[in-house]
Amino acid sequence: MKSQYVLPITIVVAGVLIAGAVFLAGKSGTEPKPNTNPDGSFTARPYTPGVDHILGNPAAKVKVVEYADLECPYCKTFNTTMHQVMDYYGASGNVAWVYRPFPLTQIHSKAPVEAQAAECAADQGGDAAFFKYNDAVYEVTPGSNGLDLAELPKIAGRLGLNVATFNSCLSSGKFAKRVQDSYDEVVSYGGQGTPYTLIMVGTEAVALNGAQPYDSMRAAIDAVLGDLGTASTTTQ
């Protein structure tokens, strides 16, 4: 990602107080560092069909990749923000939202199971079911590890999924490795809290930490789209 993508984003978020759940890696002050370029961008894994879940056009030039924890109250707020972002940009096909799990087990012991539950929903209903399931979890959880896990199959049932199949998937641990791999990936990028968001063009990424407000997300995305010579939206 060229430096002119990064500077406008840096200006947008500088001086903004960002809220987010943070954990300590416990590595004697040594944090994983991505392969960072002089402009602050770095190389990250691009959207991967069959592994990632996407809302919007899979061929979108700009992808907002969110690493999130379903028990994080800031992620709950940011989930609403991202739906607003997609309401604005989605019809243009130029921006898409990719969600990847980042369960902060150190403070939210239930989050890995919830992340696997969302994967089991997607296993039946695809990406649409995945995002609907996440929305439903955010609606019922009080956050901060407060969800009764007995709600997970009930949510599946309310979404019209086969509950027996869902329960079998969840109890088997079918997606435990996928969730762990996503966790390890974001830690390798230097992520320490949720939500942790990448604005990506191809494999090049700029990281935004915390629950960025809607106006900041709009400004950051517009800066990248403008540099690409792409209109932000065709409908608004």
Give the structure's gist in a few sentences:
With 236 residues, this protein is α+β, with helices and mostly antiparallel strands. The protein is 44% helix and 15% strand.
Provide the descriptors you would attach to this structure in a database record.
six-stranded mixed beta sheet, Glutaredoxin, two-stranded antiparallel sheet, alpha+beta, 236 residues
Report what the structure shows.
This protein has helices at 3-13, 73-89, 111-140, 151-158, 163-172, 176-188, 214-228; strands at residues 21-22, 42-43, 53-55, 62-68, 95-101, 193-194, 196-201, 204-209. With 236 residues, the protein is of the alpha+beta class. The chain has a six-stranded mixed beta sheet with strand order 2-8-7-4-5-3. A two-stranded antiparallel ribbon has the order 1-6. The model is unreliable at 25-30 (pLDDT under 50).
